[in-house]
Specification:
Oligomer: heterodimer
Radius of gyration of chain A: 15 Å
Largest sheet of chain B: 5 strands, mixed
Largest sheet of chain A: 5 strands, antiparallel
Structural class of chain A: alpha+beta
CATH class of chain A: Alpha Beta
Distance between the termini of chain A: 22 Å
Strand content of chain B: 25-35%
Shape of chain B: globular
Number of strands of chain A: 5
CATH superfamily of chain A: Histidine kinase-like ATPase, C-terminal domain
Largest interface: A-B, 25 and 19 residues
Shape of chain A: globular
Structural class of chain B: alpha/beta
Chain lengths: 142, 115
């Protein structure tokens, strides 16, 4: 069964740590994600929130919806406008912070997808697949 | 969320030890400290990342900015890092080829710190 946690934070730098902490804590509840992968997700959430904060000029809110299921952990981050352009640019960026951001997002989650959501908003969907072997281990006799 | 920044002089190197989480919120302090070191005339800067619990692209941008700044004055900026989680971020972004990375402050200042 899926567990859903929603969090809304002001699009300001001091709140990015709260988003990371909440997602990291949720990811650790259900077995199947090694600590290293949770750490990866925390980095990607930080990158996505930072991208939105920079794009929005620290105005507005970011809405995070975390869906913790038996096979996947999905984090959807919704923000007004084209808030994730530095994470998903139309062109390949030069060697700067944005290129680091894109490299990290591509490397550290299994899937990342940009979607349009409610009118005037975009949503970045980040997906981690749970390790099949570890998930199966939940059912082993102790 | 606090960022700890501590500067010590070791064998001709300015050793900047960083503790805590480096992200969009704390990176400005880190950037300011590196700018200050270069402005004070430091040309050999060693950033000790052993106390860093989290580092994202904003922190990487500060490190690269610091490296560019000190190199423009014919200096260098090296790192101390053995933490797998931080090395992974440096590897993914190709920065292990850009920075000299040492296993310890002693190894760094002992080998190159005669200036």
């Amino acid at each position: 069964m899926d567990s859903v946690v929603e969090l809304e934070i002001p699009a300001r730098p001091e709140f990015v740590g709260i988003a990371r902490m909440a997602v990291g804590a949720l990811a650790g509840i259900r077995p199947g994600l090694p600590y290293e992968r949770i750490d990866d997700l925390r980095i990607v959430v930080s990158e996505a929130c930072t991208s939105a904060i920079e794009a929005l000029g620290e105005e507005g809110n970011l809405r995070l919806r975390c869906i913790d299921g038996p096979k996947t952990l999905e984090v959807r981050i919704e923000a007004p406008g084209a808030a994730f352009e530095s994470a998903f640019p139309p062109d390949e960026p030069g060697p700067d912070v944005d290129s680091f951001r894109i490299s990290l997002i591509r490397a550290l989650v299994d899937d990342a997808e940009l979607r349009s959501s409610t009118p005037g908003h975009t949503e970045l969907c980040l997906i981690l697949h749970r390790d099949a072997a570890s998930t199966d281990g939940e059912n082993l006799p102790v | 969320m606090d960022l700890g920044l501590d500067v010590k002089e070791r064998n001709g190197w300015a050793v900047l030890s960083v503790q805590g989480e480096v992200d969009v919120y704390t990176a400005p302090q880190f950037r300011e400290q590196l700018i200050q070191l270069v402005d004070q005339g430091q040309r050999s800067i060693l950033v000790d990342l052993e106390g860093v619990e989290f580092l994202d692209s904003t922190g990487l941008g500060v490190l690269v900015g610091g490296l560019k700044r000190v190199r423009s004055h014919d200096g260098d900026l090296a790192l101390v890092c053995t933490q797998r989680r931080i090395l992974k971020v440096l590897e993914i972004t190709g920065l292990t080829k850009v920075f000299t990375i040492h296993d310890s402050v002693d190894a760094a200042v002992g080998g190159n710190g005669q200036g």
